[in-house]
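Query form — protein Leucine-binding protein domain-containing protein

QUESTION: What is the three-dimensional structure of this chain?
INPUT:
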Amino acid sequence: MVLALSTACGSRLPESDFEHRDRSTPSAPAGERTPIRVGIITSATSPVGGNAFTGPRDGAKAFFDRLNARGGVDGRRVEVRECDDGGSGVGNNECVHELIDEDKVVALVATTALDYAGASRVSHARVPDIGGQPIGAAYDTYPHLYGIYGSLAPRSGTTGWDGKQYGGTEVYRYFKREHGARTAAVVSYNQPASAAYARLVERGLKAEGYEVVAEQVDFALPNFRAVAADLKEQGADLVFDAIDSHGNARLCEAMDDVGAEVTAKVTNVQNWTSTVAEDYKDAPRCRNALWATGSSRNFEDKDQDAVREFRDATNHLEAHSQWQLEGWAAAMWFTDAAKACADQGVTRACVDDHMNRSQGYTADGLLIPVRFERLAEPPKSRRTCLSVARWEDGRGWVAQGDMNSTCFEVPQLSYQP
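ANSWER: The structure tokens for Leucine-binding protein domain-containing protein are given below.
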């Protein structure tokens, strides 16, 4: 599960700063076949801060650039229209209107929105939204929206099942089985989304038999040193978080300062980046205890052909991240759907039909098989696989086993989004 949260530092940007920048791919020269137009909505200038949400966009654009260099889809290039929603619901609705009603995009790809307020409008227009990041509940609520990790929910306009979503305990089972962990701390902000996700983590840990230490810090003025001191006092084996990357770095610094050592400081896919050495430069002990879990192949696994192609196409970027790889996978997913529709026409309806029938999609091995099932009742348990990596200075993120065989039959616990 992915959680994107507002940072603890800095002030909110005024609405005037949430401007839409026209960075569209230029129109095709005369004589070329009509391009296939797609839209990418990103909270690029959100209150969370620069570059927090741009990874999926950058990965998707890199894929489309390479695709176009190789002839596009059946001789048609893919034209990308971008829109920055500024991290606000108002801005998001404006982006949805601009891309769907004015630009007439065939699909949205790799959506990464802090507040996906326009999701219902996307669904009502029957525009397929492919490979978006499930920061909120939209991808478990509406038809025609296809999150990067899939969904088993009915998606008939109500979130999950009767307003509740479900998550598994596979991450906690992994650390219990592989590392003998017994005590886990959960650090969150006193902010609704952060606190809600933390409650889910706490329930999952308790279901797996952990002793749980709950730690909450003030959203505006977090006292990470006090949290770190308590983690040391409680003797936590693991630390999980429901906070942003900047907060994670400050927490790690505080843990090193007070001498709080843990088996693993476990973070989520949003913080799985190549900038760890810089971001955590003042926390060497905690830095080398960082672990990340997710549902996609480690972007450092260059021995894998699909990862190597991604890295080659993105070598111009200053840094790499797991979200970039997932944006690349989202663009590949759209492209596979568009190719399947090439003979009859790449339309919204055809692409959506192809997506609706997607079962077990892997993006050439980059994703754990993705499913959309629309189950009438939530599953009580599920076999779930996960990708695990650990940071090591000098090596970067090192995969821990293969994601398609690191699997567990685990209970599915409900939570209120």
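ADDITIONAL NOTE: The chain is about 30% helix and 20% strand.
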